[in-house]
Specification:
About 35% of the residues lie in helices and about 20% in strands. The longest helix is centred in the C-terminal third of the chain and has 40 residues. The relative contact order is 0.10. The protein folds into three domains: about 100 residues, no CATH class; about 120 residues; about 200 residues, Phosphatidylinositol 3-kinase Catalytic Subunit, Chain A, Domain 5. The protein is globular and about 65 Å long. Helix 8 runs antiparallel to helix 9 and helix 11 packs antiparallel against helix 12. It is an alpha+beta fold and about 450 residues long. The strands form six sheets. It has a six-stranded antiparallel sheet. A five-stranded antiparallel sheet has the order 4-3-2-1-5.
Amino acid sequence: MEKLFVKFNNSPIGELYHEAGKGYSFIYDDKWMRSPDGFSLSPVLDKNIKTHASYVGNFFQNLLPEGKALDDLSAYTRVSKSNVMALLAHSGKEIAGAIEISRHKKISTTPLIPFREVTQKELNERILSRDTMPFTVWDKKVRFSIAGYQDKQCFFKDKNGKMYLADGEITSNIIIKLNSVNPHIQNIVANEHFCMQVAKKIGLNIPNSTYKKIPEPIFEVERFDRICQSDVTVERIHIVDGCQALGLPVSHKMERNFGNDRDVQDIREGVSYSLLFNLSERTNVPIKTKHDILDWAVFNYTIGNSDAHGKNISFFMNPEGPELAPYYDLVSTEIYESVVDEMAMAIGDQFVAANVEAYDWITLANENKIPLSVLERTLNKYSYAIVNAATEELKNEIYSPEDQKVLNKVLEIIQNRTQCLISFTDAVRDEVKENQCIRIK
């Protein structure tokens, strides 16, 4: 039987076990269970229950990267992609959230290696050499494990702006994302920065981010699961993504977990708005969380983000309960012809944003016990706010002419969806009035 130790700030949370043919199990540490500061790993892995078997494998597998990043981790560690325990042992010092995973019970508190600075010149050179060396690999070592497909890397950035590799002994506080090497997905970092800034302008909760060129374009975003306490001390904050919170495997991050082929399109066992709205009842502020998830849904619909799936929404795991984390990975994917335009989660029963009608929003609200008056206010609030913020942000001189070409396509989608929001608001308002008349009668 294999065993790994799961810790927080060198305090034991529990032990992870895997036995061939029997699967995974997790046993909480007794002191952690008694501690008022101890948190549950996820809503489905309650710390008040000592031993867990269900959902354990799904939770820990969700900590690993996806796609090419997982291929790179497997190749450079010489570990099979199916060997989750070994991959976690290799990458468990620098993963999403607060926990650390190790084969050893105690973590050394003495730095084993000097801080490794990364200059802008080296960073730019590494961006340009991605065809020969994966961006996840530095000094012949895979340096991070954060879920997702996009090329990115974690660094520690000090108050003077110098960057260092995060190597477990030094915890990262920023993530740097790069443009795609796929020629059909152009200027995606400008796209993401633009959408994030639009979200910020209308008051949505997002982490601080910067778009700059060194001269290669990069998107730098502060990690919201990290808080800088001093020049080199970073506090880890535990978070879980939607899949982990619901106990689902990474293969279920899309609502149609088997895809949209005719024979399987009605199988909808993946993360959905309904599952997230139900999860909101377990958070520390259920009503606010439900409204915030609705905001997230409306914003993603309006910017044309069909990739808003279960791993692109997260929750802080506080002792008093889950709390919705800032929004992230806000990108207009519909502008790229090579990206499937089917939404990761349906609005009502509609998966194609261009086909969404007022009825679909009303269905979504009714099925999830959201008052239509709340839906009306939400649609009305964003009817002009998003397009006005996008129009203003497009004037930002940071965007190059090439960026502008891409962002104008994003603005066009937002303008079209704005007209839909206006129409939807009127339809929902009429429905509210009709319901009021029925109640009066």
